[in-house]
Amino acid sequence: MAQQEFALDPPQHADTVPKWLDTGACVLRGLAIARAVEMIADIRRIARGAPFRRMPTPGGGVMSVAMTCCGAAGWCSDSHGYRYVARDPRTDRPWPPLPDTWRDLATRAATLAGYEGFVPDTCLINGYRPGARMGLHQDRDERLDAPVVSLSFGLPAVFRWGGPRRTDPLRRIPLLHGDVVVWGGPSRLVFHGIAPLRPGAHPVTGPCRYNLTFRRVWQGDE
Ligand code: MD6
Ligand code: FE
Question: Which atom of ligand 1 is nearest to the CA of 211?
Answer without folding.
Answer: 6
